[in-house]
Amino acid sequence: xxxxxLLALGLLATxxxxxxxxxxxxxTGKKTKDGYTKITPADRYSxxxxxxxxxxxxxxxxxxxxxxxxxTVPDGNYHVTAVIGNKRAAGETTVRGESRRLxxxxxxxxxxxxxxxTFVINKRNTHISEKENVRIKPRExxxxxxxxxxxxxxxxDAPQLSELIIxxxxxxxxxxxxxxxxxxxxxNEPWASWGQMIPRFFNDSICFANYAESxxxxxxxIGAGRLKKALTQMKPGDYIFMEFGHNDQxxxxxxxxxxxxxxxxxxxxxxxxxxxxxxxxxxxxTQRRSSMKTVKSEIPTQTIPKRCAGWLPKKTxx
Length: 318
Fold this sequence. Notes:
It is a single chain. This protein is an alpha+beta fold. The chain has 2 domains: 1-170, Galactose-binding lectin (Jelly Rolls, Sandwich), CATH 2.60.120; 173-318, SGNH hydrolase (Rossmann fold, 3-Layer(aba) Sandwich), CATH 3.40.50. It has helices at residues 2-15, 194-197, 218-223, 226-233, 258-275, and strands at 21-25, 37-38, 51-54, 67-72, 76-85, 91-97, 101-109, 114-123, 127-129, 132-133, 149-158, 161-169, 174-179, 207-210, 239-243, 279-282, 288-291, 296-298. The strands form 5 sheets. Strands 2-1-12-5-8 form a 5-stranded mixed β-sheet. The chain has a 5-stranded antiparallel β-sheet with strand order 3-4-11-6-7.
């Protein structure tokens, strides 16, 4: 343990992370920019090292294969500057983070052209307190959203990366996304949900933290500790978007359904957010497509009770 601690301290000193800033140089030249850590194909991620290529083989030479790069960081929001391009080759790069959260797509660069791409990404693990963790599902244990590292994916026809700067930020508004499979960060192609695509349409003045998970209802989301975990990172001026209904409408039995469990659970989200100075927003459930051939779709409108309007002020809805 002492050796790991010393290695971690050495990494922090090398990277100059007094303000939790990490700088990496991916160029192939012998010189390294001041304050940067030089990255070579031999730099593979490990817990002891704290950074490196991950999950796929390291890119070498004129490789056009996608690659991942991970850095061990504490929970929070991080401003990322990825300098896309290569002085020796043209490229086309798509940038994703964590579980396929999209930030930039098909960034084309000519030989010698460098383009800085900036965004803010949220990183978290399952830890809530010394005595409590989020009760994630078995299928989530391999998700990149719930570990101790920030993982970035560089994909596309010919991904190119010259520099990477990762800096912790505390002054950017966060939008916490709560929902089910229509919102979740889907791990595998070709599945995708709006929650993992929406960062693509915003700049680095806002951060999206996607806490959604497939199969969740409003009450099970709370029961698993997902809301409680989000509240540990929530600050005044943040937003919380809630999109449930698809699974809530299936619940049967005493205390279940639209007129009790669903409504009272949403009120819990709203009350907890407002208590922390955040803005709650109710999102209409996404249409459910039940047949790709007939393009038949439905919205679970039966889940949304009209009586909700009795305790939700108009400013809650956007």
